[in-house]
Amino acid sequence: MPLLPTPSELAARARADLRVGLPVVLGDGDGIALLAAETLTDARLSAIRIFGELDLAITDRRAETLKARAYDGDLARVVVPVDATASWVRAIADPADDLRVPMKGPLLTRREGVAGLHRLAIALIKSAQLLPAAIIVPVANAKAFAADHHLTRLHPDATHQDLLRHHALNPVAAARLPIEAADAGRLHIFRPDNGGTEHYAIEIGRPDRDAPVLARLHSACFTGDVLGSLKCDCGPQLRTALAEMGTAGAGVLLYLNQEGRGIGLANKMRAYSLQDQGFDTVEANHRLGFEDDERDFRLGADILRRMGFSAVRLMTNNPRKVAMMEHEGIMVAERVPLITPTNRHNAHYLDVKAKKSGHLL
Questions:
Q1: Is the pLDDT of residue 261 over 80?
Q2: Omega within 30 of 0 (cis) for the link into 156
Q3: Residue among 55, 225, 280, 293 flagged as catalytic
Q4: Which distant-in-sequence residues (6+ apart) come within 8 Å of 138 by Cβ?
Q5: Which of 122, 158, 212, 279 has its CA at a distance of 20 to 30 angstroms from the CA of residue 62?
Q6: Is 256 within 8 Å of 220 (Cβ atoms)?
């Protein structure tokens, strides 16, 4: 078997390159070289500028904040001025100083040409949990360009499919783990086949595989689960769900590493900083260039199937989780509400969850 990396393995390599500030190439013939705006340096900007006129690809969400025309619908291709610095690029990508320095333009955006590779570049950068903005230069021979500069090169079609598809989760290890909620606890570790972040299942007792199991899909929240943050309801929901499973004598809590609704802890802290400026959760995500919720709940259905469950009593206030489970073939016999106390720090957050995200609170 040839020792050639698969599309998934190349995408994982590309994400690592982007996070340390290296360019990545997309294409076979005509293609692009891209750099993540967040990790851009002046030296790399100068180096890539000699190959042609630069675009800064940003999402339509970010473009709306900047009053830049998004002729491509879901993104805008901003023309990068010849005297632009890395700081200028990061100021377009990062809303941290939007209120202090509101005038970023006028920004000229492209109307002509195609944006398929720009769109793929943003999707790839999102998957690396960086700010969704990319410096892009066209290259005439992508394969030769990547080889000459020792850069990771991705085939666009394969990468697009790889980013869209659900990566199967494989069991890695499991062991007995007594916890406060139940002496009879067991922790299962699952790893996606693209080498991505691992996810966990906490099994309480010995749930009957032939009956609907009391289950919860819980997205990781370092600030709430570990630090006891009062800005959200994640910590109380985690502890309440485990306690109720302990009382019932059986259950499965799926702990999915999708921090900050899938945008990562660093971007979540950026969103918190924007909330301190007066924006709500959804508005903050949009100003960063993300959608309301970037999570993939198919992960939960996959883990349940791997563990032998086909039906659940789902502990959630989020109708989207119910719909996803049923779409993925896991029967939801009952939605079990999970209501926890509010406080003065999270009351507005919960109100936004109900009004803008449809949570049943």
A1: yes
A2: no
A3: 293
A4: 30, 31, 32, 52
A5: 158
A6: yes
Q: Confirm whether 225 is a catalytic residue.
A: no
**Are 332 and 326 within 8 A, CB to CB?**
yes
Question: What percent of the residues of the chain are helix, what percent strand, and what percent coil, each to the nearest 5?
Answer: 40, 20, 40
Scanning the chain, the segments in alpha helix (DSSP H) are 7-19, 42-49, 60-66, 86-93, 116-127, 142-149, 156-164, 234-248, 259-262, 265-276, 281-288, 298-306, 319-327, 347-357
CA 192 to chain centre: 15
pLDDT band at residue 147, thresholds of 50, 70 and 90? very high
Mean pLDDT of the chain: 93
* Catalytic residue from among 61, 77, 270, 295: 295
**Strand pairing report for 152-154 and 185-192:** unpaired
> Could you give the CA distance from residue 318 to residue 340 in angstroms, rounded to a whole number?
14
Q: By the 8 A CB rule, do 26 and 136 touch?
A: no
Look at residue 187 in the predicted model and tell me its pLDDT.
97
Specify the pLDDT at position 347: 77
CA distances (Å), 296 to each of 43, 156, 157, in order?
A: 36, 22, 21
Give the chain's end-to-end CA distance (angstroms, integer): 54
- Burial (CB < 10 A; 0-12, 13-18, 19+), residue 37, is buried
Q: Would you call 93 helix, strand, or coil by DSSP? A: helix
295 is catalytic: yes
Q: Are strands 213-219 and 250-256 parallel, antiparallel or unpaired?
A: parallel
Query: In whole angstroms, how large is the CA radius of gyration of the chain?
Result: 22
pLDDT of residue 346: 78
